[in-house]
Design brief:
alpha/beta, Molybdenum Cofactor Biosythetic Enzyme, Chain A, six-stranded mixed β-sheet, 6 helices, 167 residues
Length: 167
């Protein structure tokens, strides 16, 4: 079956949980989370939950575990993917991944390079599969989240969920 056939038979709507990781944002100031939710809904996907989590590894891990136990087929995290000492998202997500999608991070950084130049190398964005669910760890900036959703995640989200649903 070719790429077009995979897309034709893929689910058009899936449930997605959104986790914003930040020590400084409030729910009213979470523009990245707002953008992710708006893009998901505009594409016809359901938001199965949204939380703002303090950038503390045990707290992040607990929120991610709760999302993995919930109804979402995919989880999108934003924040904590840089190189600052408190940026621990890749380590937390990576420890849970059964299968990594290295192409996601590679493509994200390539696309980012065209927008922000060499600073793109500071991103440790990643994606993969944990407990049969898709996980995406994105930077905290609204522009980065929009780029990832529009160029990478949304075009393949249904296809990826369909592939995971196969026996």
């Amino acid at each position: 079956m070719g790429h077009r056939e995979h897309h034709a038979t893929a689910p058009h709507t899936i449930a997605v949980a959104v986790l914003t990781l930040s020590d400084s944002r409030t729910p009213a100031e979470d523009r990245s989370g707002d953008a992710i939710v708006a893009l998901l809904e505009a594409a016809g996907h359901a938001v199965a939950g949204r939380v703002l989590v303090r950038e503390d590894p045990p707290v992040i891990r607990a929120a991610l575990e709760a999302a993995l136990a919930g109804p979402a087929q995919a989880i999108i995290l934003n924040g904590g993917t840089g190189i600052a000492p408190r940026d621990s998202t890749p380590e937390i997500v990576g420890a849970l991944l059964e299968r990594e999608l290295p192409g996601f991070g590679e493509l994200f950084r390539q696309l980012s390079f065209h927008e922000i130049g060499a600073a793109a190398m500071l991103s440790r964005a990643l994606a993969g599969v944990a407990r049969g669910k898709l996980l995406f760890a994105l930077p905290g900036s609204e522009a980065a989240c929009r780029l990832a959703l529009e160029q990478l995640i949304l075009p393949e989200l249904g296809h990826m969920a369909g592939e995971l649903g196969k026996a």
